Amino acid sequence: MRTRSAGSLVGDLWVVRRGTGRPLVLLHGNGASHREFDRLVRRLAPGRSLIGIDSRAQGRSLRGEGPLTIARLADDVDEVLGSLGGPTVDVLGHSDGGNIALELALRHPERVRRIVISGANLDPSGLRPSLLRTFAVVRAACAPVAAWSPWARRRVELMDLMLLDPQIAPSDLGAVTAPVLVVVGERDVILPAHTRLIVSSLPDSRLVVMPGVGHMVPVRRPAELAALVEDFLGAPDSD
Predict the structure, then answer these.
(1) What local confidence, expressed as pLDDT, does residue 45 receive?
(2) pLDDT of 190 strictly over 70
(3) Which domain holds residue 149?
């Protein structure tokens, strides 16, 4: 979101807005920022108000006080939208951003019209075991110095977001009223059976498996993902 965009802190969160029209909120993956979607937003049709939010303690957002959980990050999004006048929005979330999008739909359903998630999971068991082991190693390496190193403390918290969160029961998804497009890479770190569980648990969902790509669909396949988003969300000026 480099051009014709303006960013500012809304509370603790860095929020970047671009364009006018129907709002589309962009939620990035763990440890990234709204810039994760730079290559995608250029391919979206005009007529959307793009709202890129850096999650708490990531990108240019502040850490603030209290625990760092997916549920809290979803509440953060709700608070940002409230400060912007309380619009009903479409949401595109990748990885942890997809998890946040699902939590937002559960905790604040009035905010959400349609959702696109890419590489999301309901709980850590949805990730490849080898990846969870890697996260645990990184956490163990950082934990001894976290008390005096802000960088290490941040790494521990970000690893915990993936090792401990989210905690969404499949049965919870029955309460999601918004239609959901579930996108996953053919070689994603999300286990295929877990993605199928998400799709089967949502009342109104569609699955797209992106061939020949792993977890980073928004970065590796921005044109294809943008086309899917446009088709699923519909024209910006339609109901």
Answers:
(1) 76
(2) yes
(3) 127-164
